[in-house]
């Protein structure tokens, strides 16, 4: 119940509506919309990885919760990309009223074809798609990195074993940290964590 209150409180504070799950356009490659719990985002914001001057790319941004929250809390700029037009419209609606909308932009795009801007130095994933798509996305991120070398951090919340196994095979990626979130939810689920990788 406390978690529900926190969800509503932050949505109200940020002047957005991001609650609820939506799997109407999900398939075996693209997973349902489900917002990252605010308690997890608070922990990420407090970890000190993002601040003013950083630009976050949120893959499968849904209704924009991650973008509005992190830009509000850390003052980073944020770009959310979403392939589902109906959900993207909800993010655009939120953008008209959100308190941190000045630092946030959204694009209707398929992640695997999206050209990563050179300003991006952080990327966020909450299991938005299959490993097959993730491989193409990582290739796009590396393309951008080689065109303009910079330190980049990738954040994976609630990662599957498949994701981790694949990420460990990418030469350019180094595992740097794990933000434990198990204490935030009942059940001691080992996947309740944010795994941080870096490209240097």
TrEMBL record:
Q: Which residues form the Methyltransferase domain?
A: 57-141
Q: Does the keyword Transferase apply?
A: yes
Q: What is a single molecular function from GO for this protein? A: methyltransferase activity
Q: Name one GO biological process term.
A: methylation
* Keywords recorded for this protein, A-Z: Methyltransferase, Transferase
What's this protein's name?
Class I SAM-dependent methyltransferase
Q: Which organism is it from?
A: Dorea ammoniilytica
